[in-house]
Amino acid sequence: MPDSEKIAPEAGNGTLSHGVLNTAELVFMVMAAAAPMAVVVALMPMAFAFGNGPGVPGTYAGAVIAMLLFAIGYVQIIPHVRNAGAFYAYISASFGRSIGLAAAYIAAISYFSLCCSTLGALAFFSSELCARLSGFNTRWELWAGLSIVLVSYLAYRRITLAATILSVALVAEIVLLSMLDVAILRAQGLRMFSLHYFSPSTVFAPGIGIAAIYAFNGLIGVEGTAIYQEEAKDRQRTVPRATYLSVMAIGGFYVLTGWCLVVGLGDDAALSGIARADPGHFVLSQITHYMGNWAADTLSVLVVTSAFAAVLALFNNAARYLFALARDGVLPRGLASTHPRHHSPHVASGVLTVLLVIVFAFSSFLRLDPLTNVSTALVGVGSVGLMALLATTSLGIPVFFARRGAWGFSQTLAPAIGGCIIAVATMLAVQNYSAITGVSSPVINHLPFGLFAIAAAGIIQATWLSKYRREIFNRIGSNRVE
Q: What DSSP string runs through 153-199?
């Protein structure tokens, strides 16, 4: 698609708020989707347990490097293809509209799957927290329902309100875990923080494939800066700045915290065994030991707020994909409507709200457990889908610029290397899929193959549009900022 090609919005289509999100708010939006508290408490112990043990901090560092290489190319293509669909628009511009439409459906499904998965965990831990603090047992359905109502309301309002809520939740969880890092540093001393945890012999130990899955899984969400470029202030500077800051901030936080957790345990040889024995309480036990019971209680509360922040961020991402597809004419035009005052994609958000209600009402009817059934079934679908899109986008950026005669490091080499690394991690995720879900169910562990059916549906629809509705086909992935 030529850089100059801009297709004006159809009459009657709404527009998102322009120039309302600054760099900090963008960073909070995407870091909240990554859910750092949930990653450290739930995923990192699994990497210690079933991955390469002491090599986990180095594995996270490698994942951060790969994501930085991706980001170098990502920020180069953002000014050329401006669309709330992000992955959808960039893949369309690189590999064609048919592949782009397939990517759009995978992205929307992936974000919604992760939203449902996180909401299931949120409902479970909210019920547990209520029982611990008050002594009253409550049904998880109550917390799921309340969360859906609150998420729907915040998505309905102007995006700056959601950004404010996410910033408060994110800062609180980062502060507590940073306090744990400082406590371990003071107790163990700087001399215990050896660089051998980042040496090739330690990192490339048995289990590195599984550790890499969790490392990249924890970084999913940082690509979301481009989703909000239509709502960003001075997007030519804000979006690239927020992208780099998000990758470095969240990635550096994971590396430092992982390093501290290894040092804090004080026994590299026993690390994997201790984490495997009780991964759910691995971090809780360390924070209790180094900071006391008050910190453990605070951690339990912040796990819930972190999960809620992630649900809200993922919900907003999915809503903007539906909005972008509808604005391009691929989905029903009504989904492209925005609120006259808040400029939020309130119709798309309403549809997602109904879908959330259906998913959790159905889960309750079947007596499914929100954590071990709903959350585990959907977390892998979303994770694998977004990892595949990260790899495809990263590998597509060099194609986009090569067609325009640009062969620089930032336009071609960096994203190509990053894309290859992420592609390898995606293949490892598929091969070790049960490590993501934590279950042995063949039904759950074959769910990612449904992504191929979704992609095929997108390609078939694009082929039909190309033949019978060419004007709509030409709008797929088009520039729609102005």
A: HHHHS-HHHHHHHHHHHHHHHHHHHHHHHHHHHHHH-GGG--GGGGS
The answer to whether residues 63 and 210 touch, using CB atoms and an 8 Å cutoff, is no
How far apart CA 451 and CA 463 sit, in angstroms, is 18
Q: What is the dihedral of CA 303, 111, 57, 446, to 10 degrees?
A: 110
Which two tokens mark 349? 């958000």
% the chain with pLDDT above 70: 93
Domain that holds residue 342: 23-473
Q: Mean pLDDT of all residues in the chain?
A: 85
Residue 242, in any domain of the structure: yes
Q: How far apart are CA 363 and CA 369, in angstroms?
A: 8
Alpha carbon distance, N-terminus to C-terminus of the chain = 17
Number of domains in the chain: 1
Quick one: average pLDDT of 349-359?
94
Per-residue pLDDT tens over the stretch 135-193:
888 999 999 999 999 999 888 876 666 667 777 878 888 999 999 999 999 999 888 88
Tokens of 220: 């999913």
For position 85, what pLDDT does the model report? Answer: 57
Q: Which one, of 214, 253, 247, 244, lies nearest residue 42 by Cα?
A: 214
State how far the Cα of 209 lies from the Cα of 64, in Å rounded to an integer: 15
DSSP 330: S
What is the per-residue pLDDT for 70?
Answer: 92
Helix (H, G, I), strand (E, B) or coil at 230: helix
CA 333 vs CA 102, 188, 319, 329, 348: distances in Å = 19, 60, 14, 6, 10
Query: Residue with structure tokens 């924890």?
Result: 218
Decide if 7 is inside a domain: no
Residue 2 falls within a domain, yes or no? no
In a domain, 16, yes or no: no
CA dihedral angle for residue 116, residue 454, residue 343, residue 346, rounded to 10 degrees: -50
Q: What CATH number corresponds to the domain at position 109?
A: 1.20.1740.10
Share of the chain above pLDDT 90, in %: 38
pLDDT digits (tens, 9 = 90+) for 417-476: 999 999 998 998 888 888 777 777 888 888 888 999 999 999 999 999 999 999 899 888
CA–CA–CA angle 218, 224, 227 (5° rounding): 165
Q: How far apart, in whole angstroms, are the C-alpha atoms of residue 470 and residue 473?
A: 5
User: CA-CA distances (angstroms) from residue 124 to 121, 128, 197, 217, 425?
Assistant: 5, 6, 35, 21, 30
**Are the beta carbons of 39 and 320 closer than 8 angstroms?**
no
Contact assessment for residue 139 and residue 370, using Cβ atoms and an 8 Å cutoff: no
DSSP state of 22: -
Q: What is the pLDDT of residue 328?
A: 85
Per-residue confidence band for 81, with pLDDT thresholds at 50, 70 and 90: confident
pLDDT at 482 > cutoff 70: no
Tell me if residue 70 falls in helix, strand or coil: helix
